Amino acid sequence: MLDDRTTTRTDLDTLKVRVWTPKSNRYGWSSYLGDAVAGPDVSPYAAAARREDLTGLPPAWIGVGTLDLFHDEDVEYARRLSDSGVPCDLDVVPGAFHGFDFVFPKAEVSREFWRRQARALEGAL
Length: 125
Prior knowledge:
Layout: H1 22-33, E1 60-65, H2 71-83, E2 88-93, H3 100-103, H4 108-124
Parallel strand pairs: 1-2
């Protein structure tokens, strides 16, 4: 959840996503931001994608599946970080939905996803 403005994207309503749906996304953001959701006054501290200048942010690891509701905003944010000179590892898992690694924790793809996440954290610390 990086961009509250995704709540206004009706094209996401047609996606066949699991776990975190467009309805869940709207509920989550409106619970967090109330009536301000998708409006002009949302702080970049509340919605990271709202920040215009990303220079100077710490390195990031972003992991997302191609069937995740957050795929587009995660890929875009990773691009913006990289364009701003912020080291960013983007880990895109083909065919994975939001939370796949918790739903199928014993699957090799989930285990590898967690290993890559742990390596990124190890490298940062």
